[in-house]
Specification:
This protein is mainly α. Among the domains are: about 40 residues, no CATH class; about 30 residues. A two-stranded antiparallel sheet has the order 1-2. Helix 2 crosses helix 3. The protein is flat and about 105 Å long.
Length: about 170
């Protein structure tokens, strides 16, 4: 095995020298130095002796294929079990649907008859006066530069008026 000084003198990016790679595998300081120059050295320095699985490649392939067959069998059985419902579960689903539809029909019939029970929120909101406008109300406006447009409404109680005037403030 070579020394650290010899390694640092002999190391170049992309080197495939067996002595240099062997030194990198055992010396962490030289590995850090080499990775700063050539980050790919970490992959080249892995070595191949520990890449064979225990028991050999054939045993590894057999284990993988056994797991593949086991998982495909599990998925097949799980698919069959999930698709079929037992008869008590089917009756429970049907009863739930019937109860839901009956309740919805009763609520719809109740609203159709026009009988409405005021809720506590409705009674409370009726007692609190609310402000319906957020902008000031203009009673009268007269300007030579303004364009005043009245929007007709079907009811006579509310008038919508648009005033186009460059001299008015932007928030009015």
């Amino acid at each position: 095995m070579i020394s650290c000084v010899t390694f640092r003198n002999a190391f170049a990016p992309g080197t495939e020298s067996a002595e240099v790679l062997q030194h990198v595998r055992v010396c962490d300081a030289c590995l850090d130095h080499a990775a700063g120059i050539d980050p790919d050295i970490m992959f080249r320095a892995l070595g191949g002796e520990n890449l064979v699985p225990p028991g050999g490649v054939d045993a590894f392939v057999d284990d993988v294929m056994r797991e593949v067959r086991l998982r495909s069998t599990e998925q097949t059985l799980a698919g069959r079990r999930g698709m079929l419902l037992s008869w008590p579960r089917r009756i429970a689903v049907a009863a739930t649907l019937a109860a839901g539809l009956s309740g919805a029909l009763m609520v719809w019939q109740h609203d159709k008859n026009g009988v409405a029970v005021p809720s506590a929120m409705t009674a409370r909101s009726a007692a609190i006066p609310t402000r319906l406008t957020t902008k000031p109300v203009i009673e009268s406006y007269d300007s030579a530069n303004a364009t005043i447009v009245e929007v007709p409404s079907e009811a006579n109680d509310t008038k919508i008026v648009m005033i186009f005037d460059e001299s008015l403030p932007a928030d009015l």
